[in-house]
């Protein structure tokens, strides 16, 4: 007698899905020690927020002390969101500096380039097949016209 398995239980035994996930897996997001960072809040700048942006210190400037990398972020009106975003950007830059080939940013860039390349290949293939089909249609149309003219010539004789 077969035991009933819920759909989730069936997925646990599948190896196809896990292989697919591993191929697309990115390296983990880098982390930075808070001791290596100096943080400054700045006023002003450009972006959303209007007059409020000139009154509040929502712009964040982080400096990584060992490398000297400076990151400024004012993507949102919220100071906390800007702090989080600036830390992510700084961590990515530090990781890229230490290990450029295996950094998250370089892997994402490689994926974007591969996607663009495959897209170009698809469009090139599509246009070449369309051109071949058009050439075949023209050739067939010319042959039909020649056959029609030949039949007209035979009728006159």
From TrEMBL:
One Pfam assignment: RF-1
Gene Ontology biological-process entries: mitochondrial translation
Cleavable signal peptide: none
Keywords recorded for this protein, A-Z: Mitochondrion, Transit peptide
Compartments, record wording: Mitochondrion
InterPro entries: Mito_Transl_Release_Factor, Pep_chain_release_fac_I, Pep_chain_release_fac_I_sf
Primary localization: mitochondrion
Residue runs in coiled coils: none
Positions with biased composition (Basic residues): 118-128
Family assignment from sequence similarity: Belongs to the prokaryotic/mitochondrial release factor family.
PANTHER family linked to this entry: MITOCHONDRIAL TRANSLATION RELEASE FACTOR IN RESCUE, PROBABLE PEPTIDE CHAIN RELEASE FACTOR C12ORF65
Protein name: Prokaryotic-type class I peptide chain release factors domain-containing protein
């Amino acid at each position: 007698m077969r035991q009933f398995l819920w759909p989730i239980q069936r997925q646990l035994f599948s190896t196809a899905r896990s292989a697919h996930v591993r191929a697309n897996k990115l390296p983990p997001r880098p982390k930075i020690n808070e001791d290596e960072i100096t943080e400054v809040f700045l006023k002003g700048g450009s972006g959303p927020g209007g007059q409020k942006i000139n009154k509040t210190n929502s712009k964040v400037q982080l400096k990584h002390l060992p490398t000297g990398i400076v990151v400024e972020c004012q993507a949102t009106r919220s100071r906390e969101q800007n702090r989080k975003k600036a830390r992510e950007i700084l961590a990515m830059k530090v990781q890229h500096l230490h290990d450029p080939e295996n950094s998250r940013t370089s892997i994402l860039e490689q994926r974007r380039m591969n996607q663009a390349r495959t897209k170009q290949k698809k469009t090139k293939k599509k246009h070449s097949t369309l051109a071949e089909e058009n050439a075949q249609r023209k050739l067939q149309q010319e042959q039909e016209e020649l056959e029609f003219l030949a039949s007209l010539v035979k009728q006159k004789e």
